[in-house]
Write a structure and sequence with these properties.
It is rod-shaped, with a radius of gyration of 50 Å. The protein is about 55% helix and about 20% strand. The mean pLDDT is about 80. The chain is of the alpha+beta class and about 200 residues long. The protein has two domains: about 1-70; about 95-195, General secretion pathway protein M, EpsM (Gyrase A, domain 2). It has a four-stranded antiparallel β-sheet, covered by helices on one side. β1 (about 110-120) and β2 form a beta hairpin.
């Protein structure tokens, strides 16, 4: 087909086609830009809403923590733990005198009698006093109590042996013995070694 239109009209058609294409691209660009603005606005609104919700949740949790007074509870737990440890330590050093006196009594040689028993402040040993009929029997007390087979004490020392009477007096125990005995680490007379926790 031959185009017989004058050159000015031809130019107008060419520019009209270009303008239509440019209008399409401008319209597509505007629609894309509006879509991008809408998506960005929606994202910002969601972000702001999420931040507000998070602040409310943090405030609620802080209010709960303050209401529950966690610091005071932790202090009470620490005090309880310290008290429990102290009680365990004290009980661990408590001596079972019923078992100790029975064991000492069975270790005493014939012709002797236990007359006194006292424990010192450190609970690592005891002081004993006993009566004996003669000097040999008095020294035998130390030998019997320090016997490793009895597992009573790790060390027993004689502090003193005193002659307190003569054979004419009514008291049959003529000698008084003072001894210092130290518990061994595995002695059976401490509560802690009895399996009592």
């Amino acid at each position: 087909m031959i185009n017989l239109l004058p050159p000015t009209i031809k130019k107008d058609y060419i520019y009209a086609k270009r303008n239509t294409g440019i209008r399409k691209w401008i319209l597509i660009s505007l629609v894309s830009f509006m879509g991008l603005i809408l998506i960005t606005t929606y994202g910002l609104i969601l972000f702001k809403t999420s931040a507000i919700n998070d602040k409310k949740q943090i405030s609620s949790l802080q209010h709960k923590l303050n209401a529950e007074n966690i610091g005071k509870t932790n202090t009470q737990i620490q005090n309880f733990t310290n008290t429990f440890n102290l009680v365990s330590k004290v009980l661990g050093q408590e001596v079972l005198f019923s078992k100790l006196i029975t064991a000492i009594g069975s270790a005493m040689p014939a012709g002797t009698a236990l007359t006194g028993l006292s424990i010192n402040n450190t609970s690592t040993g005891i002081n004993l006093t006993a009566g004996a009929t003669n000097y040999t029997t008095a020294t035998q007390i130390q030998v019997n109590l320090s016997d490793p087979n009895r597992n009573l004490f790790k060390n027993v020392d004689i502090v003193s042996i005193n002659n307190t009477g003569t054979s004419s007096t009514s008291n049959q125990y003529l000698f008084t013995v003072s001894l210092r005995a130290l518990f061994n680490n595995t002695n059976q007379f401490l509560l802690i070694n009895q399996g009592i926790k």
